[in-house]
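Need a sequence for this fold. Nothing fancy.
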């Protein structure tokens, strides 16, 4: 991926749609910016009046007359008024651009976060969580820096330079030539340096994303790291990856600093030429002293934006590299397309039918191939098979995390792909081997099963899951905040809260993926009691190798070579215990 203008264009195209709601504010900011430019243009003229009309009079007489003092007072008042006007305009510009930047960043970050959450499972299988977090939080912030924090002021800098260049041409075309001649050199220098800065920044951002991913994995597995005394190894690994990031960061900063210094030199050369030639033209009477002072003031003010341009070039180049990462992320994070005209599902009886289903996780490699399976409403079916045979894929298909590339899956007689994903998932509950809890209260975690459920419904589900006793014993009961990933609770406690969440959902189809794996005998018994209450009267598809669960299922099917085969079928006499 090339850098330079291409990277900047991609970044601008990424940001532009998110500025629509802020365009009136941005327009107001640009108007204030033009006002600031106008005040800057007017600021040197009181000085010119004093130099050309007051200084000669004062030099030729012992005291200044009344008219001279009047001119001095008016010039002083004008300086104050112009400075005040410029300050107000600058303030309004800064506030307007800050509002636009914050709104744009918030909108863009929300879109990136949403797109990542809706991305197909294959995207997340090949991405690292820490790197994705870096793109959502840090890279999006730098995109704001490119498009808003530096981009809009850069427009103002260019407008200021152009306006002052026009005035300087009117004052003295010969002197203005020195200013205009420097512009192409500045543009060429900035363009070449910008490409190199973008390339270095791109590498730095990639390495920082990898660093974030390494750190996230280490912290997520801190128990294993400490149990195996891997801290020093992780420190060495992190340091080895951190060093190249440091080098790339220093290179980008060095290139940006070099660009700013080259601009300083070019500006110094232009100022020296104007000073020498301007003094010569004053001595010849072609230019007044006041006009030369105004010209030099304009020259200094006009090249201030040029210096800013050099400074912003480095910032924009670094931000454009981040913009590329966000664009790449959005390009790859495609959600599964919804079938045109997909319909809803009011109630689910729980009839499931696989008819010649073929599913590929990678193109050309089938996980399910010609799979046929019928599950009747209220039936409990266990799916067994070797690792990698497609058991979890079967559950993913029923959740519409994957769609078949051949055959069809029927849910209550409806082709699954003709139903809206949300409507399917509203009627399906999942209990995984490793229950997922988020940092929040117990009540909030259970309520995820049915957002909007009242506290009484949450407590009822927790009681049915056999979790009320331990929840009530927590420091703040249902309002106790659990640690990230539920690490402050035992495995059995986490699983019972996951079952309570599923109970609150009141699903027509229940999917269980090794729900008792890793639990001790006592915890497994409590969880099985809760699972029995959850599965009662519901169609249940269970992935497990637990004999106590298999013996209590209506049917056991084996998944091998991409197809289902019934290995045992009998009606259970007992419960799931």
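Here you go.
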């Amino acid at each position: 991926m090339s850098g330079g203008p291409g990277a900047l264009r991609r970044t601008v195209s990424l940001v532009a749609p998110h500025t629509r709601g802020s365009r009136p504010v941005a327009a107001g900011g640009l108007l204030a910016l033009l006002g600031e430019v106008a005040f800057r243009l007017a600021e040197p003229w009181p000085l010119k009046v004093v130099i050309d009309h007051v200084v000669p009079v004062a030099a030729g007489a012992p005291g200044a007359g009344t008219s001279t003092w009047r001119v001095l007072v008016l010039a002083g008042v004008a300086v104050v008024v112009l400075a005040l006007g410029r300050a107000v305009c600058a303030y309004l510009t800064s506030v307007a651009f800050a509002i636009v930047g914050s709104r744009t960043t918030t909108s863009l970050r929300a879109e990136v976060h949403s797109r990542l959450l809706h991305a197909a499972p294959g995207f997340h299988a090949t991405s690292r969580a820490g790197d994705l977090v870096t793109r959502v939080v840090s890279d999006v912030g730098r995109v704001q820096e490119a498009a808003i924090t530096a981009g809009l002021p850069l427009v103002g800098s260019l407008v200021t330079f152009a306006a002052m260049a026009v005035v300087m041409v009117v004052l003295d075309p010969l002197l203005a030539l020195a200013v205009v001649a420097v512009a192409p050199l500045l543009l060429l220098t900035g363009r070449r340096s910008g490409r190199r800065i973008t390339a270095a920044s791109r590498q730095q951002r990639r390495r920082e994303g990898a660093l974030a991913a390494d750190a996230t994995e280490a912290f997520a597995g801190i128990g294993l790291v400490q149990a195996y005394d891997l801290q020093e190894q992780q420190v060495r690994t992190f340091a080895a990856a951190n060093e190249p990031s440091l080098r790339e960061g220093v290179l980008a900063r060095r290139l940006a600093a070099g660009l700013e210094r080259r601009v300083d030199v070019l500006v110094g050369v232009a100022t020296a030429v104007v000073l020498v030639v301007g003094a010569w033209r004053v001595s010849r009477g072609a230019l007044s002293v006041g006009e030369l002072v105004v010209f030099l003031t304009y020259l200094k003010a006009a090249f201030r934006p040029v210096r800013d341009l050099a400074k912003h070039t480095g910032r924009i180049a670094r931000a454009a590299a981040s913009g590329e990462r966000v664009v790449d992320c959005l390009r790859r994070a495609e959600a599964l397309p919804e079938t045109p005209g997909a319909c809803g599902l009011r109630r689910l009886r729980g009839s499931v039918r696989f008819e010649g289903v073929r599913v590929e996780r990678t193109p050309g490699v089938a996980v399910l191939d010609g799979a046929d399976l019928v599950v009747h409403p209220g039936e409990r079916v266990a799916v067994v098979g070797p690792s990698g045979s497609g058991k979890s894929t079967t559950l993913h298909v029923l959740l519409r995390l994957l769609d078949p590339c051949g055959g069809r899956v029927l849910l209550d007689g409806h082709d699954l792909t003709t139903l809206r994903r949300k409507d399917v998932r509203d009627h399906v509950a999942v209990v995984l081997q490793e229950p997922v809890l988020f940092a929040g209260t117990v009540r909030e975690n259970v309520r995820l099963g049915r957002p909007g459920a009242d506290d009484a419904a949450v407590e009822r589900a927790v009681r049915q899951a056999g979790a009320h006793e331990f929840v009530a014993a927590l420091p703040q009961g249902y309002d106790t905040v659990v640690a990230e990933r539920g690490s402050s609770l035992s495995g059995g406690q986490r699983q019972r809260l996951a079952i309570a969440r599923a109970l609150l959902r009141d699903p027509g189809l229940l999917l269980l993926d090794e729900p008792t794996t890793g639990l001790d005998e006592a915890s497994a018994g409590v969880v099985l009691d809760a699972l029995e209450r959850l599965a009662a009267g519901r169609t249940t598809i269970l992935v497990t190798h637990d004999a106590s669960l298999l013996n209590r299922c209506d049917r056991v099917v084996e998944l091998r070579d991409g197809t289902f085969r019934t290995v045992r079928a009998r009606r259970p006499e007992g419960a799931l215990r």
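For context: The CA atoms of residues 112 and 136 lie 6 Å apart.
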